[in-house]
Every structure is written in C-alpha cells, then in structure tokens.
Amino acid sequence: MEHHLLEIVGLVAIVVAVSAAAKRFGLLTPIVLVIAGLALSVVPGFPEIHLESEFVLIGVLPPLLYVAALETSVPAFRFNLRPILLLAIGLVLFTAFSVGFVAHALLPGVPFSICLALGAVVAPPDAVSATAVARRIGLPRRMVTILEGESLINDATALVLLRLAALAAAGGSVGPANIAWNSLLAAGGGILFGVLGALVFGFLHKRTSDPLIDNALSLITPFVVVIAAETVHASGVVAVVVTGLALGHRWPTLMSAASRLQMGAFWRLVNFMLEGLVFLLVGLQLRQIMDGLETSTGTVAAVTGAVFATVIIARFVWLYPVTYLVRLVPRIRERDPRPPIQVPTVLAWAGMRGVVTLGAALTLPDTLADGREYPRDLFLFIAFATIVGTLLLQGMTLQPLVRRLKLQPDDPQADVLAEAAIQNRASRAARDRLDEQAGDAPETVVKRLEKLTQQRNNVAWERLGAAGTETPSRAYVRLRREMIDAEREVFRKARDEGRITEEVLRRAQHEMDLEESMLERKLETS
Questions:
Q1: Residues near 514 by beta carbon (within 8 Å), at least 6 away in sequence
Q2: What is the pTM of this model?
Q3: pLDDT digits (tens, 9 = 90+) for 3-16
Q4: I need a labelling partner for 43 at 20 to 30 A (CA). Which of 111, 190, 255, 275 fits?
C-alpha cells in the first residue's frame, strides 16, 4: 500500500513539475508530458505502471467527459450537430473499416473481424487531446465546438463497434439484428440514463445550498451515471455526455453562487491532474508494450506505418467531400455557408488520439474463436504508436499549420460588443428592479447600488476602445489590489502581536480574498 502511495505521489509531482516547466517556456503541456513519460519509461529502475482498461474507461474517462460536457454550449452543440455526427459516427466507422481492410491485407492470416476491432480502437480522436490542444492554440470557437463535440460522442461509436467486432472474432453471432440491437441499446440506453442522471442530480443540486455537498454530488455524478449505464450494456459515454450537457446548460440556476465558485475551482484542479496523468501515463507505457512485443521488427514497422498513415489519410478523405457535398443541399447551404478550404484542412489535421485508444486496446481478447492466437502484442503496439505519433506529429505542427494557412481567428471585438449590449440591457433591468424593491431603504444605499450598476455597465464599453491603454477599470483594479495588500498586512501584524485572534484574521482574510479574486477576474476580462 505504501509503495503504491509513493508511486501516485511521485506521478502527481512529475505532472506538476513538467506542467509548470511547459507553461514557463510556452510549450504545449500535453506534448511535453508524453515526451517526459517516454523518457522516464526507459530510465532503469523507474517503476512500471500497469494500466487496466477498467481504470481508463471507468475511472478516468467519465470525469473528463463530464467536465468537457459541462463546459460545452448546448446551443452551439445543437447548431453544429450535423458536422459533429458526421465526424463522431461517420468518420469513426470509415476510419475503422479502412484500418481493418489495410491490417487484414498486410496480415492475411488474421481474421478481418479482429482487424476491424483494431480499427475501432484507433479510430476515435481523444476528448482530452482535442480540448487540450485546440484551446491552447486558439482555434476559432466553432472549430473547437466541432472537435469537442466529436470527441464527446465518437468514443461511444468506437466502443460499440469494438464490442461487436470482438464478439465476432470470439466466434459469436453478429448479424444485422444483433448490430441494430447493440446500437439501439448503446445510443438509446445511454441517452435514457443520461436524462435520468440529469433529472436526479439536478433535483439533488436544487435541494442543497451547501457548497461541499454540491461538490460531492458533482464528483460522484459521472461515475454513478456511467456505472448505471454500463450495467445494462448501454453506452456510459453517451450517458455521461448527456448528463453533463443538460446540467451544464442549467448551471446558472441550478445551485448557489458559492457552490458554482467552489465547484469551478474544484473541477479545474481535477481536470488539470487527470489530464496531466493521462498524457504522462501514455508515455510511461512504452517499456511495458515493448517488453511484450514478440512480432518481427519488419512486420511491426510495416503494419504500424500503414495503419498510422491510414488513420491520418482517412480523416482527410472523409472531411473534404463531406464538408462540401452536404452544401449542395440548398437548405443546408443557406443555413451554413461553404467554409474556406482552411477549415476542413485544420479539422482533418486535429485528429490526435489519446489514452482512450490505449484503454480500448487493452480490452482486445487474448485469443480468438477456438483458442486461435493472433498478434495481440502487435495490435497493442500499433495503438500506442498511433497515440504517440498523432500527439507528437499533429499536436506539435497544428499551431504552425494554423498560422501558415492564415486561418482567421474569432473577432474579440465582436464578443466585447455583444457583451456590452447585453450588459446595457442587464443594467437597465437591475435599475428597474432596484426602483421596485428600494422602498424605505436609505438613500445612500440606493445611490451606492446605482453607482455600482453604472460602473459594471461602463466596464464593458471601455474594453471596446482600450487600444492598449490603461482603462479606468484596469486602473481601479490595480490600485484596489495595492490597497488590499496594505489591509492584509495590517491584519497579519495585529495577529502576530496578539491584538486579534486567528479566527478574526481568517474571517477578514476570507473577505479580502473574495474581493481580490473578483478583481483578478475583472482584470482577465478587461
């Protein structure tokens, strides 16, 4: 027990140190963590980390999908549902069958069913990889939504196909009726459990005002939903995504402000640690996978190279026709005009794989029907090489590609203008409510609230004409932070001199910390 605890603490320390170094030098943290894992895996004496498929698919994936779904805009997701489904279902099936045919052609003695299972393993881009890289390099918002939406759903498609292909490889009966039933159970059951999860946990969140209980409920939500769905062989991935989308859409009215603030900080920490561990663990699998590799070097190189190339090429072959052919339909073309060629090009190059591919590969059967063997060690290595190869090749070149193609980013002024217009309406609503509720309140209080409302309204309009100069709002934040530092020092000295108790200091510190956090947030958005 103590040995495992030291390993966990050591891995967390490595994640923190590597992430800090990556941010310090402006590098992509996921890429640096994978490289660090690869390097550590060949260090003599460094402990081997054995990943289990259940740990990845039940322990790591649900909370990461849940957080991503919470932060996904439901209106944006709905608007982009067509391209999301074309990628999450159509592209996954196209890639899986393409890889299956290529692997079977190079390994004619291996049944097509298990080659198709390999295709299902390497077909879906990873939610963590897509989110971590796409947001970091500043892709346009709609492209990020499409990539995130794809990665939220494509795991379900791949895992259902993997289950059917593995069943066929093991000698089970897989006909049209079986395929239809498994697909209906996975998708329909996942949606049903997702809706039930949203209703149950939404009800519980509504009934509590304690931030700690809200956090505890939020922590167990993805695990309860995925375990309940998987118990009846429905898609836990779909269930978690549906629950996250539904709860995230209702977040502003579902719980108290204190709960939302604490939960936001809590999930940022969980997301940071899990993402970091995911990328580090991928790299650390190198030694274990290499030790288990028994296939000849020539076969490994040929099949791995062919599968890797197929994974990359299939995405381009699918995306270009799909992007433009669907717009031959006038209704679609009017609603969603034809994008420039840069858009499908960048989307095609953003297909990084992640730890889900490795977790799915670990579920591949040890033997086939009648105990026949197949090169499972080679399939595991191909999955590992696809993850590392796409992360390093595509992850490291995606940002230069975006710059070279001159892909136009979102106009920040448009967001500021929209915010300013809505803030103006919100300020009017606030003043109207103040007039209704003021009653016998002291005039000084009413004047102070009116001034606060006007200040918030001014901040949004100031950002439109900032032009690199210090706006009044930024000057206010800078000076108020200096004042808070002075107040904090007075309280600290009073505590040290015994004039106030520790409890008094903590209470005052809490109030100052809240105000300072609000100032920092205002500084980020101004």
A1: none
A2: 0.83
A3: 667 878 888 999 99
A4: 275
Q: What pLDDT score does 172 carry?
A: 66
DSSP one-letter string for 374-398: --HHHHHHHHHHHHHHHHHHHHHHH
The domain in which residue 491 lies consists of 412-525
Both 396 and 429 in one domain: the answer is no
**Tokens at 272, concatenated:** 């940071």
3-state secondary structure at position 340: coil
Work out whether the CA dihedral 381, 384, 386, 391 comes out positive or negative. Answer: negative
Q: What is the pLDDT of residue 151?
A: 87
Q: 374 and 467: one domain?
A: no
Instruction: Count other Cβ atoms within 10 Å, centred on residue 161.
Output: 26
**Angle in degrees, CA 192, 72, 418, rounded to 5:** 135
Domain count, the chain: 2
Domain CATH number, residue 45: 1.20.1530.20
Dig out the tokens for 328 from the structure. Answer: 């031959």
pLDDT score at 448: 78
Q: What is the DSSP string of 219-281?
A: HHHHHHHHHHHHHTT--HHHHHHHHHHHHHHTHHHHS-HHHHHHHHHHHHHHHHHHHHHHHHH
Residues 333 and 481 in one domain: no
Instruction: Say if residues 135 and 144 touch (Cβ distance below 8 Å).
Output: yes
